[in-house]
Amino acid sequence: xxxxxxxxxxxxxxxxxxxxxxxxxxxxxxxxxxxxxxxxxxxxxxxxxxxxxxxxxxxxxxxxxxxxxxxxxxxxxxxxxxxxxxxxxxxxxxxxxxxxxxxxxxxxxxxxxxxxxxx
Amino acid sequence: xxxxxxxxxxxxxxxxxxxxxxxxxxxxxxxxxxxxxxxxxxxxxxxxxxxxxxxxxxxxxxxxxxxxxxxxxxxxxxxxxxxxxxxxxxxxxxxxxxxxxxxxxxxxxxxxxxxxxxxxxxxxxxxxxxxxxxxxxxxxxxxxxxxxxxxxxxxxxxxxxxxxxxxxxxxxxxxxxxxxxxxxxxxxxxxxxxxxxxxxxxxxxxxxxxxxxxxxxxxxxxxxxxxxxxxxxxxxxxxxxxxxxxxxxxxxxxxxxxxxxxxxxxxxxxxxxxxxxxxxxxxxxxxxxxxxxxxxxxxxxxxxxxxxxxxxxxxxxxxxxxxxxxxxxxxxxxxxxxxxxxxxxxxxxxxxxxxxxxxxxxxxxxxxxxxxxxxxxxxxxxxxxxxxxxxxxxxxxxxxxxxxxxxxxxxxxxxxxxxxxxxxxxxxxxxxxxxxxxxxxxxxxxxxxxxxxxxxxxxxxxxxxxxxxxxxxxxxxxxxxxxxxxxxxxxxxxxxxxxxxxxxxxxxxxxxxxxxxxxxxxxxxxxxxxxxxxxxxxxxxxxxxxxxxxxxxxxxxxxxxxxxxxxxxxxxxxxxxxxxxxxxxxxxxxxxxxxxxxxxxxxxxxxxxxxxxxxxxxxxxxxxxxxxxxxxxxxxxxxxxxxxxxxxx
Lengths: 119, 649
Hints:
By secondary structure, chain A is an alpha/beta fold.
């Protein structure tokens, strides 16, 4: 069985590095994007199994990315895990599969992702 | 009738007996002893006849005759003489004596003489009466004629007017008595500048002026005959319109608006002038009220402790109050965003634009810069100014200066806001630390040393960021006393450069440090001043990273000494700042870095430099770069309490 792919969207390089290391260590293929435009660019050529999405990013924010995904029927069913430091912002993305508050531990991320992917 | 007679004789017996005889004849008799005495009582007695002896001491009869005739030629003088002297008699008659009687006096002759005189007096009196009567009659008749002429003219005038007005008003219903009922003072004047006719209101309020001079009704009338509106109308043949003051019957002055209209005869000559005066005292009172209201409004406009500017749809200021002009200069004719925010483009969050769009009031808090460079926190409230059609034509912006409130808040209630604004940063940093630690561990677990090394480097940077943030928060949350210690300036500067070097290297920014010779030692709060300067240096790195236009970036960090002042120059070729950003740079909670900045860094850096008695000069240009010049004087830093008191007062 081929590896499952996760798209990680976050403007903080430290967070991208962190999530990439965690997902790679647990057997996932990881693609990262530092902003909304880059994420949509990648989604035009691939269909990941799960997306982790930061809410606060300059320019194209998490909600913008989420709406863009929902509008595209080919992508609309991809589960999105919202990651943000603002717990009050979790509901800003309506169809999120899960919400992760910063700061988080590696085990927690892995447990949430595995739960969503039914592993 | 009984005539008054003055009897003059120096002999008392003659005066007595002759007096009795004359009284019997019906005369009112007065007596005098000589000519002088007679002249003295002449005016008082006012005799019709003087009967005088000729030969008298002091003044004789002939002299008295001359004097009386010179003074009152109508008095009839009868001369009495003891001598039948013909020459004397002729001399008396030449001097207009009425008669000449010789002594001893023959009663019959005297009686006859007096009768002739009486007849003469009666005739003369009658003649005078006739003359007087005739004059009076002529006067009466001619004034009657003039009166009739006037009445005729006024009657024609009034008739014509009434006809005109009746005709005009017939359609409206009531048509009678309009001339008299007109709510203004109407008068007709003739060319002799006399009032010929007036309406009832004129008569009631200004008095019966018919027959009087045209200018008498005007206040300050002395010269009005020659410059009043009536005269002008006759002179020019054109209707006049002017403000005048009329005198009421009761002496009060009444402001009026006078209109005159010439009425020409068929030959084209102005014969009469129609004068209509409207009482404008009510209008005057309303105008005064309006003026007072406008004054009050202007006073309010100017005295309001707010900056008030009224701007049109294009953003041009059309009015501003004193307070606004004081702090921002005359704004009328200039663009609002230029005067108020020193921007070249309209402000993106302009509340006035919203009010133009929806007509509703809007509120906006921002930081503006006065013309002398002070930052003011203002709360702008807008209000629509509509025209008669209800369209928003202008918007008034009232900006309350809440700087002092904000300053107070900055040490009290905004603590919560600060914690909120930085908590996100803290969470992000903690997550990043978590990640870096994870990568160090997983690198070690897998024997991937390079992963561990890279992660360890990230840990060090992140710890530095956490440390700086915590220091800032502590600094802000708790006003710290300065803790001066003597430092070697060169070593102090080197330590700062080393703190920033890894970040600069990671971002590919060249940091050029130039430390001058003989910098010596200095007493400063080393920890906090270093944090302040490092903050500026890190900002310089961020500004370089944010600038994508230039291929390479560098920061020049120079430390030099100018006399007893240390100068730290930090110059980058990053993105630069526009004027608005420059002016707000040191303001609490203002950040040009969006969500990455807390709005604390430069505020604290500036505060710390000021506490050291120093200053920060900032020059910057968008797209070119920024230059911070921090000057620290070589004096012992002022204790914190003193600084706070000074700034609070």
